Amino acid sequence: PMFLIFGGNAFLMKFKYDSKTYKFTTTYEEIFNTSIVGKEYTFMQGMRVFEDAQNQRYGISSATHNGDYNVQFGMISTDFSGKYLWSDMFPAANQYGSGTGSHPYSLITSSSNDGWVIAGLALRQTSGVPEGRMAKISTKGDLVWDTRFVYPTNSAEMSVECYGVSLCKDGGYITTCGSGWEGQIDGVEDKYTWVALLHRTDADGKVDWQKAYTNQTGPNNAGEFVVTTKEYGYAMYIDSNTWGPGDTGGNFGLMVLNPDD
């Protein structure tokens, strides 16, 4: 399915396409087209659509706000025919206080097939420092648990982009993020400040371990996605300026790790 947002309304559409060319045919068949309007909040940006085959429904994560543009995790669910089931906004709230902004990036069905897990970032209310956020939403739209990943810094310019989340063999989750400066030095982006982060949790969102990875020539390696390998290790995809040819920028980095290394 395709998920679009226009004028605060969300549209979920599914089409048939030519399986040989992987392109829409000139006379494509529209399977469904559903318009969704938030009751007390506005959908701003669609992030991921994930199919829950066991429960015959779609989960859609969305950046959402409630009128003050304080962006938060949002979630929409429909059945396989596109029929609207529910939607809600899940404001960030933890030991740093409530009402802090948060932005979803990645989505996956939960290991117990009873909901979805969203990964993204959240801002501390007291300092505005970004940190990783992972939350589980049930198939009925309830917040089950909410976890934070803190990267030690006092700078409000740090950005944590948790773009990838995957399931682990024990039912836990592995999330990759990039953390570094978004600012510039003398008008030039500081390209030696980013590191690739991995966060491992159990099935209940409790943090097992957190690690940061870079190489000897200087950190600029933002974690973009992570998957588990056949040996139950991890393969992390990295946007890198330091792995690969020097000073080329935007190289594709791949790091393979042993199980729970």
Question: Quick summary of this structure?
Answer:
The protein is mostly beta strands. Helices cover 0% and strands 59% of the residues.
Summarize the structure in words.
This protein has a four-stranded antiparallel β-sheet with strand order 4-5-6-7, with no helix packed on it. The two termini are 36 Å apart. The chain has no helices and 22 strands. The chain is 0% helix and 59% strand. The chain is globular, with a radius of gyration of 19 Å.
Number of strands: 22
Structural class: mainly beta
Strand order of the largest sheet: 4-5-6-7
Low-confidence spans: pLDDT under 50, at least 5 residues? none
Number of helices: 0
Query: What is the mean pLDDT?
Result: 76
Shape: globular
Beta content: over 45%
Radius of gyration from the CA trace?
19 Å
Identify the quaternary structure here: single chain
